[in-house]
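Table S2 (text version). Query chain:
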Amino acid sequence: MVHSPSASAAELTAADLIIEAMQRFGDREAFVLGDQRVSYGQAADAISRIVRLLAARGIGPGRAVAALSPNMPEVWLVQAAAYLLGTTYTGLHPLGSPGDHAYVCEDAGIAVLVVHPTFAETGAALAERCPGMGFLLTLGPAEVGEDLLALVESVPAGRLGRGPAGQEDAAWLQYTGGTTGTPKGVMVPHRALVAQTSTLTCSWGLPETPRFLLTSPITHAGSLPILPTLCRGGTVVLQQSFDPEAWLDTVTRERINYAFVVPTMLYAMLDHAPPRRHDLSSLETILYGAAPMAPARIAEALEEF
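Corresponding structure-token output:
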């Protein structure tokens, strides 16, 4: 794991890790989404612009930012900007109901909601329902809110600063699925994100130079390997929906060596798109979670992959 020169190991925050990665690997490819390719340097500039824009609108410690979107590099850039601002970030699951989203936004006290244009109508309804929400920003043109991507074009990029957050300050306020009642907000401090990054980097099969394929929602647990990947100078390859053939084709084309899936995705590949028909020689680790997996199917996956 990299270490920021601005803080000792005992004081490291997620912001420190982000800044170090952005500065250390400037020309490398950080994110891929279809034909869109974003370098670390471009990502750093975008984060700095988002930080400046939100800071000018009074967003900082004590405020909260949320995102509702399919997988896009800009979603993580907003999340990173929130960490640098010392505010908290909450991801809204794209498959969640409007009622669930409203509950989370009210409970978390969301001040800024960032949505993909496909969720613009939902975002407008949430802004109307949640009186504490000051800004609705969209990741592209939409009939409601303000286009964040257009706004930041007029904001000059600057040097990234670690911001006011300390190790014990909440960085990520993530909500449970609500299977035993209403969703519960889990406050994840910067200290925990640093520890998680170290653990994933050292002991969860992360390749030396990861090329990480993320198909599950970036606004949920699937985002956890992103920061460890970037701390290694790797590349995050995003897909906005899951299709077994497209997943396997992407592994071959992008030389993916690390991936996060849920068991149903593995089952679909085993049943409908035999992995052996594809060149998967680059794959080193498949990380799965969110549900149990049948031992027989684990053995089958080990054989096939």
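Notes on Table S2: Residues 1-5 have pLDDT under 50 and may be disordered. The radius of gyration is 19 Å.
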